[in-house]
Design brief:
Helix content is 72%, strand content 0%. With 90 residues, it is an all-alpha fold. Helix 3 runs antiparallel to helix 4. It starts with 6 loop residues before the first helix and ends with a helix.
Amino acid sequence: MMINLTPEQERRIQEMIRRGAYDSVEQIVDAALVAVEQATIPGFEGAQQELEALLAEGLASKMLSEEEFWSSVNRRTNALLAEHKATRRK
C-alpha cells in the first residue's frame, strides 16, 4: 500500500524519529493504528484524553521497552473499558 504524506506530516514523523520517540516510520504507523483502534472502540466515550495521557507518559519514560509500553497501555485501556461497561450496566 502506498500513502502520500503532506510535507507537515512528513516533518512531524521525522521529528519524532529525531527525538528518539520511535526508531522508524513503521513504528510510528503501528502506534497511530493502535491509537485509532482504541479511540474507536464502540461505547468507550470520553477516553481520548486518558489514552493521550497514557501515551505521553509512556513515551516520556525510557524505562519501558516499546513492547512493555504498549502492553501497559492495552492493559490500562482494557481496565478502563471494563469499568465503563460495568458503569453502563448499573
